[in-house]
Amino acid sequence: MSQDILINWSPQETRVAVVEQGAVQEVHLERTLERGLVGNIYLGKVSRVLPGMQSAFIDIGLDRAAFLHVADLMPNIAAKHAAPRERPPTPPVSEVDAVAAVSPVNAGAKLLAPNPVLPIERQIFEGQALMVQVLKDPIGTKGARLTAQISIAGRLLVFLPQDNHIGVSQKIPPAQREALRQRLVRLTATADGSPAGGFILRTNAEDATDEELVDDTAYLRKTWLRIKDAATRQPPATLLHEDLNLMQRVLRDLVGADTQSIRIDSREQHGLLVRFAAEFMPDTVTKLQHYSGERPIFDLFSIDEDIARALSRRVDLKSGGYLVIDQTEALTTVDVNTGGFVGARNFDDTVFRTNLEAAQAIARQLRLRNLGGIVIVDFIDMVRDDHREAVLTEFRKQLARDRVKTMTGGFSQLGLVEMTRKRTRESLAHMLSESCEACGGRGAVKTARSVCYDILREILREARAFNPREFRVVGSPKVIELFLDEERAHLAGLSDFIGKPISLQSESSMTQEQYDIVLL
Predict the structure, then answer these.
(1) What are the tens digits of pLDDT across the range 83-129?
(2) Counting CB atoms within 10 angstroms of each CB, which of 83, 302, 431, 515 has the fewest?
(3) What pTM did the predictor assign?
(4) In this structure, what DSSP letter does residue 33 have?
């Protein structure tokens, strides 16, 4: 099945749509202000060692020093960057202590155990350069939480460059783990048969081919070599490796043999993506295209309309039937209704055709909305067993196209179909919406930031069609306040880009999603 990937980039947000056979199947988004530091690797500098807390403060170039506990410490390559003459004399370390400091623990737990005998003041010292990775983002007055146990995540594997352990995700059934581990040992061994770093097989790699695993291994090792090289050339308190952004993850995770093109509407980001692909995924370079059309790239397949519909409970089917989708904490329910579809032959045939169409629509909606966990589907009751089997077969066929792992049961005694879909990220509704204050959480509205970005896109669309003297945005106080504060730079940037002033007017009678753009 042919696939096209569209990337809509702006300074405030990156949006990606996966289109198959002319219909959008998946939507991914990442916002600049909401992107954290977790996974970033820095060449830090030990600014203070606290023996009483068995921890240290590390300068990684942020406003506040980051925090490193002895449990997250291990020998790593960055130690050699410290000048030996700066290290204060320390008591001699016994051979037993040294071995205990680097001894591995049971598979599936932390790969290198903290040494309870060797205190932190005998392992690191002030002024030392240390390679560290962010475990937790800074919160309030607290700095980031760090670890010296570096790990680099790929699409199928997690690379542990400082250890030779080969492991398998605990979520994979025990009966399959040993075979997968032996296979991974064989595929990741170097030319002389020795290991070069450790690997953990992720859950989604259970059915991966040897070629896919080898490609992921090569990508991860190349990334680590680049990080090591940067560590030898850069001064302390420097970012060595930033966790992949959404566009880079798209190349790593979504692009396959069926991908026809990857179109991006930013020339600058296209150039950056080409350079990234040329180094790590050369096969994808020819698929990257810069989109320079007049229409917004998401307008090509009416993607914004599909996103808007994906936030509602009701999904209309072409036949006249419809779905009602309700997402709760415990599970997601999907109810199928015939609606205005009366059919042409008899009632059984009408029900059967509605359920067939619903099976296709439900599989698409699960991907589009990124619904995970337990899903209960209430198809319209069917009398004939062959109709039930045909609907179930069609449903499983459509779900097989999903990259995310799914498991589907048969019809229960109550006529319900139970299935599960692995949770990979927040659902689209949770990312774009928030609980409504007016209804006490019974419904949802778009966030003020989402409305701000809708307004920015609408102004850009209007600027291409009209030539007014000025644009005036009339919106709810919350939206206008966001434009005057956090989104001020983005609004000013758009004003400079279109060459027109943009003024703001707060209207307390408007709801959060309501706004008006007046052309003056």
Answers:
(1) 333 444 443 333 333 323 333 333 333 334 444 458 888 889 999 99
(2) 83
(3) 0.72
(4) G
- CB within 8 A of 221, min separation 6: which ones? 159, 196, 197
CB burial class (10 A; 0-12, 13-18, 19+) of residue 480?
Answer: buried
Question: Mean pLDDT in the chain?
Answer: 85
**Long-range CB contacts (< 8 A, 24+ apart) of 22-28?**
22/301, 23/301, 23/364, 24/301, 24/303, 24/306, 24/368, 25/364, 25/367, 25/368, 25/401, 26/254, 26/367, 26/368, 26/370, 27/303, 27/306, 27/307, 27/310, 27/368, 27/370, 27/428, 28/246, 28/250
Coil, helix or strand at residue 479? helix
For 363, the token pair is: 């599989």
- The pLDDT of 173-177, averaged and rounded, is 85
Alpha carbons 65 and 147: distance in angstroms, whole number: 14
Whether 378 contacts 333, CB under 8 Å: yes
Strands, E assignment, 36-84: 41-50, 55-59, 66-69
Q: What is the mean pLDDT of residues 62-70?
A: 91
Q: Are 475 and 510 in contact (CB under 8 A)?
A: yes
DSSP letter (8 states) at residue 139:
B
Rounded mean pLDDT, 261-277: 94
- C-alpha radius of gyration, the chain, whole number: 27
- DSSP, collapsed to helix, strand or coil, labels residue 201 as strand
Chain centroid to CA 74: 29
Q: Measuring CA to CA, how many Å separate 211 from each of 282, 287, 370?
A: 15, 20, 28
- pLDDT class for 375, splitting at 50, 70, 90? very high
With DSSP H G I counted as helix, E B as strand and the rest as coil, what are the percentages for the chain, rounded to 5?
A: 35, 25, 35
Q: Is 348 helix (H, G, I), strand (E, B) or coil?
A: helix
For β-strands 331-337 and 373-378, DSSP reports them as parallel
pLDDT in tens, 434-489: 877 766 676 778 899 999 999 999 999 999 999 999 999 999 999 999 999 999 99
| CA 503 – CA 501 distance, rounded (Å) | 7
Residue 162 pairs in a beta bridge with none
Q: Which residues pair with 151 in a beta bridge?
A: none
Q: What is d(CA 246, CA 243) in angstroms, rounded to the nearest whole number?
A: 10
Task: Give me the sign of the Cα torsion angle 111, 113, 118, 119.
Answer: positive
